[in-house]
Amino acid sequence: MKRKYRQRIYHIFAFILLIGCLIYGLPYFQNHTDSIANHAIVLKEEELPAYKGEPAVEYHDNQPFFTKEDLQREPFEEYGEKDSLGRCTYAYALIDADMMPTDTRESLLEVYPTGFQNNEYPDLIEDRFLYNRCHLIAFELTGENVNMNNLITGTRYMNIEGMLPFENRCASYIRRTGNHVLYRVTPVFIDDELVCRGVLMEAESVEDDEISFCIFCFNVQPGIEIDYQTGKNHRS
Q1: pLDDT tens digits, residue range 30-48?
Q2: Pick from 102, 95, 195, 81: nearest CA to 148
Q3: What 3 state SS string does 42-107 have?
Q4: What pLDDT was estimated at residue 41?
Q5: What is the pTM of this model?
Q6: How do beta strands 56-58 and 198-205 pair?
């Protein structure tokens, strides 16, 4: 009888503890989720610029959304957790020379971001394949490579024509000056689509005004139509 009584008391206590966690723990998880979301810039479909033949365009008057508090932080890296569909959310860092890689990059062939349904178009794309496993923050900036929270399905056009010039500009500046650059890249998805429509890139140098931009790179490929819902693609 005593054993049954102790078991009953234990079950009652466990039930009360569970209810307490649900009541008092839920606000914590909600606030934690909100704090993660606050590190990314959320754009609605009607806020996206229209593609008119250029791989990237200025956004928000080319002014990054950073605050003064953001610029006063110590060097850091943050890679947002994936959402419920397995999509990347953001990558955010205050980059200095110590973060930049000294080793060569490893293969990414075993990585498959959402919507990665690749096809070859050798007559349209110099490197043949439509999609790249595209880093949000480039490997040359922080050395992050096989980080699943930092890799999206991006067209070769967006990766090379859109993002790379801005990545190279920041990397060259950091190497030359030894200064810091606050840097954030946010993929922009519409509804439940698995392939982003593009990425918002923001950067600002901390010690001077040499680096400052806010641009939107289009996840498109001239001559090819993309089904952003699934990643399937075909010739225009």
Answers
A1: 333 333 345 667 788 898 9
A2: 81
A3: CCCHHHCCCCCCCCEEECHHHCCCCCHHHHCCCCEEEECCCCCCCCCCCEEEEECHHHCCCCCCCC
A4: 72
A5: 0.82
A6: unpaired
